[in-house]
## 1
Amino acid sequence: MSGKINILAHHCFLMENLMKRLLLLLAVLLVSTISYAGEDAPAPQIVNVPGRQTISLDGLWKTIVDPYENGYYNYRMHPHGEASSYFADRDFDADRTVLYEYNFNTDRNLIVPGDWNTQRENLYYYEGTVWYRNIFDYEMKPDTRTFIYFGAANYEAIVGLNGKKIAKHVGGYTPFNVEVTGKLKEEGNSLIVKVDNKRHADGVPTLNSDWWNYGGLTRSVMIVETPMTFIRDYCVQLKSGEPKRIEGWIQLDGEQAQQDVTVAIPELKASVKVRTDAEGRASFEMKAKPEYWCPGNPKLYDVTITSETDSVTDRIGFRTVETRGTEILLNGEPVFCKGVSIHEEMPYSESGRAYSEDHARILLGWAKEMGCNFVRLAHYPHNEHMVRVAEEMGLMVWSEIPVYWTIQFENPETYANAEAQLVDMITRDRNRANVIIWSVANETPHGKPRLEFLKKLIDKTRQMDPTRLVSAAMEKDNIDAVTVTVKDELVDYVDLISFNQYVGWYDGSTEKCDRMNWVFDIKKPVFISEFGGGAVYGRHGDVTERFTEEYQEDLYQRSVNMFDRIEGLAGTTPWILKDFRSPRRQIVGIQDDFNRKGLISDQGGKKKAFYVMKKWYESK
Ligand code: GCB
């Protein structure tokens, strides 16, 4: 009897415990939903921000370095309510009798745009949260919508305005804009951004990569002003298969969705008027005979789109790109892509994330000097200056998202994140004639989940933009000791057989290049998206000695000789234009946290191999 009572009592105890746990879970869930209620996704991306009415918010921002995320979570690791989080921006000095344990009004400034790692010595290796604050006045204008536009924030940004969290964005290399219409004051707006660059296993990129994870508001921040209904997005391009017609679409944003819209290219005396539908969308088509954009004649036209409420002008080029067998055709003519890979890092000794037009001009100027007509912007979307300046200089572009190495291919959230970055990249740059290749991945391990993941990204790319080539940087496979190919199943889904290979560096020594035979059984353009080896600028020695300029020079010479034997080779992008910072590169006195495979040093010194490439490209 007493045993039964005991069992009953035990059951009751278990039930009670379970109920308590459930209630606790419910409470935690409630608390976190409430505190996340303000963290909406940003507004849809506004394109051609350089062509709009903007007010810069660049300059010195006040900052708080917060490795434990004290300003976001309380001591139970529950998100603070609005009043106690740092978004409240309490004035520490206003009333010294009240306890606040943070104070934005100190001299802890950081420059925006810019990564934090290179701005303060003690942030050199820092990965975590930094709070940024900017106080600004704003002159109210009637019938105007306002957005805060971020060129990029690495990696996660939570934006707060005047005490309220208003948006969250994930992904360190794509732009986002947050609508603040009706939320600004004439004076003393407090804009706070919690930027967190902690790496995550389920992130894109993931925990491991061969480049430094520069944190911060790495690109410009600005207010964008638009009419109440404005032209948010558009696409203007040659009609596929009919290069004497220009087609595209316009997307309005706002209540007055149905409007007459004119697309005009004055220099071509071409224009067309269409009416947008209830969703603010219209397609158009018109006759025009543009000069085609190409590296030798990077012709751009002023294109003006005018609706009843808005008008925007862009510089747009027209060209076709396709493949035929093993060739890449630009405007119907075979083109050899004389390229180079580039990380978005400053030229010369400054080091850190590049962000300005000047940085772009120097980096791309070096590529031109080497004889390039093509650049691979690795391994993530670069800032808009890079793409626009390249377009103006006649450099074709390969643009990619950071689906790099071993990310979580089975995780639907990781997929959603990668797809969002892809969509943002295509949205920003689809009117750039020089972008000819969208790339969805770099050196990802074979397997079914990965194939499904990448196939979905490829489908998404083609659906958003059927006019460009789609690629991925794959890896080589050995058939025997001297015969190599690419066996990756992905080859069937992409337009190029593009792959990275390091024969003579990770794979044997330089003379191995002389023995290799490359065979491909499908007829697609072959593209070597990486090759190369390390050298310290000014370090000399025997051709067999690693990290000397002589070794690198010899490796490049033998590599290009080997490439001349590859049937169907349509382009190369050696790794890499300039030495770049990477925590994987640890030899003191040689690497010093830099990947030394640059053809140019981090200080701007051209290594011997630079001239091997230049000579080879000049011969092509
Ligand atoms: C690669 C990667 C690139 C690395 C490079 C290297 O294959 O795609 O991100 O930096 O090799 O230097 O090892």
## 2
Amino acid sequence: MPKTVFQKIIDREIPADIVYEDEICIAFRDIEPQAPVHCLIVPKKLIPRISEADAKDDALLGHLLLTVTKVAKLTGILKTGFRTVINCGVDGGETVPHLHVHVLGGRSLQWPPG
Ligand code: AMP
């Protein structure tokens, strides 16, 4: 299977504006930001989408959610608030088949999403 664009970022084959990295995940700014701050948190383990994670991934999934707060702090949106999104499948708007958590903030976000 060809590498996803996110795997290429993890492997430093293409550039990204990285805001955080540890042994389990990497976080970088979205190339088409939908808010003043828009980051993606991507596990280094390839899980195509949240619906394909299983019980073995429970610690990894918890780590991704705990990383949300770190990324919000690093990007200056912890106090003002933010939204965390995981798109899944066609109707969910998923375009990159490598699990990722969106972190959006820096403006007042509308609800419900379109
Ligand atoms: P999703 O639609 O939930 O699969 O989100 C995929 C996101 O990846 C989109 O918001 C894209 O703008 C973003 N994206 C695609 N390629 C890159 C890239 N090379 N660097 C940063 N973000 C990217």
## 3
Amino acid sequence: MSVHGIAILGATGSIGASSLDVIARHPQRFRVVALTANGHAEGLAELCQRFVPEIAVVADPTRLHELEAALRARKLPTRALAGAAALCEAAVWHGVDSVIAAIVGAAGLAPTLAAARAGKRLLLANKEAVVCAGPLLLEAVAAGGGALLPVDSEHSAIHQCLSASGAKGGARRLILTASGGPFRQREDFGGITPAQAVAHPNWVMGRKISVDSATLMNKGLEVIEASWLFCFGADAIDVVVHPQSVIHSMVEFADGSVLAQLGTPDMRTPIAYALGHPQRIDSGSPTLDLMQLAALTFEPPDASRFPCLRLAYDALRAGGGASIVLNAANEVAVAAFLDSALPFARIAAVVEASLSALAFAAPRSLDDVLAIDAAARRHAAAACARSSP
Ligand code: NAD
Ligand code: MG
């Protein structure tokens, strides 16, 4: 078996850590070639000490000296690079076979596209990249001749259900499960603090996606992601709240069969599925103990308390640049909330105001996407300033 070279974009994050945990279980199979972080040079250097990649990249150029010094102090041969272009360099580096796209937000789009164009196997966690540029990304994967494997647990579940169907075609509905987040049973959204919003009941994740899970925007982004990845329209994608997070998603077929994928809520499972595909490899996830589960329950999402889910469906149906506006406004609003500069309940309002004010034609290039993203960020920042507590 030849050793497979891996780049992790966003190595210092939650998906980065889970990915490295799986990779470390298979030293004969995988070799870490490139690691990137935003600004956490010391954390990146620690990972370099463990995995000794050929290159390490900090997106923030002001942290390059710190990274160089940290690598030197550890006497590592790893080359240090910095900046946006260096992120793309890591994504297309010659010894890299698979790229784990695990940067949070639209910031991950350019290197993800670069990896796809270069024909790398793309293991995609960075859902915002698909939301902003689904068609461009799929075109890039086709042009590069590589493959795309979803890492998001719901999309991994759907990929697994479609692959396991045993018959060709006939999938008629995707059913995405949602945990419901920490406020599933909370009536009043006043006074919610960032610490409360990031305390997810089932998953340990980065701060941004944790807030998205609390507003259900995460599920909205995942509906758009599923629409592009599996070619399903908004009317053929449903969301069901399933608080135990044991069923990760389902596919309904023409004959009425429904296939589901189950497992403990541990991202190492979908990461191992994507890394090993088409083989199954050990992930380190605990075994699912059905006897420990009192019940698996399901309920509809509450559209009035969680308007972000509806906004995402609206953006998907509107087409053009609406999904980019939705994503950018949400990134700005969530960052403001985490800075205690916007009340939790106003996140949806900022997104809705941006979607109503801005309309763009569908982007035809990365530059188009970035221009729409920038315009939406400006609009959302002004809306946040008007809404600040
Ligand atoms: P995180 O915040 O824990 O980590 C984000 C990583 O991206 C870090 O390494 C950070 O240094 C890097 N980064 C942040 N901003 C950057 C920028 N501007 N330029 C370059 N690098 C930057 O986030 P996470 O929870 O690991 O999520 C990463 C992605 O995976 C997100 O798109 C998220 O939606 C998706 N995802 C995460 C989970 C999960 O369980 N954490 C599950 C499914 C999907
Ligand atoms: Mg998910």
